[in-house]
Amino acid sequence: TSQTSSSSSSSLPPPASHFIGRKEDIVKAGRVTKLVNGCRDVLVLYHQGQLYAMDMHCYHSGGALKNGDIEQEFNGLLCIVCPWHKYKITLEGGEGLYQAVDDPLAKPLRTHWRSKGVKQRIHKVTEVNGDVFVTLNESGEAIESDVYQTEKYRTSFLKA
Ligand code: FES
């Protein structure tokens, strides 16, 4: 399922959503980061016709995902690769992926990608008449990337 919903029939942004920018500007930039609702650093990115939004700091150690490459070979899933330690995070679901070895005794070793579960908080993107909005995912369940959203981390990252 897509994280982006397009509401051409409606001219109203969804309730509790926050304006990010004009779609044409985001498409041109490819990636935009924004402090949403005064409390959360969100990365909005455009890739192959789709908009995605997620926490801006990598769940592992707070790396700047806006500088990550996007790759597709992991089980066909689109992932952003964190530039700091190359962790792979799916764009749609925020799942952390790892390479599992099928049989440690087999030669040559064969590996395939497995999910560690949702590690990066993904937010909802809506486009209304060329304006792009993000609705924060406020599910109460803790997600690892939340840790880099505290005041302490946000201020230290902004200074860095
Ligand atoms: Fe992203 Fe380590 S901070 S992989």
UniProtKB/TrEMBL annotation:
Comp. bias intervals (Low complexity): 2-11
Signal peptide as annotated in the record: none
Keyword Iron set for record: yes
Annotated region described as Disordered, given as residue ranges: 1-18
InterPro entries xrefs: Rieske_2Fe-2S, Rieske_2Fe-2S_sf, Sol_Rieske_ferrdox_dom
SUPFAM superfamilies according to UniProt: ISP domain
Domain Rieske: 18-134
GO molecular function terms noted in the UniProt entry: 2 iron, 2 sulfur cluster binding; metal ion binding
Keyword Disulfide bond: no
Annotated keywords: 2Fe-2S, Acetylation, Iron, Iron-sulfur, Metal-binding, Phosphoprotein, Repeat
Pfam families assigned: Rieske_4 (PF22543)
Name the record gives this protein: Rieske domain-containing protein
Organism this protein belongs to: Xyrichtys novacula
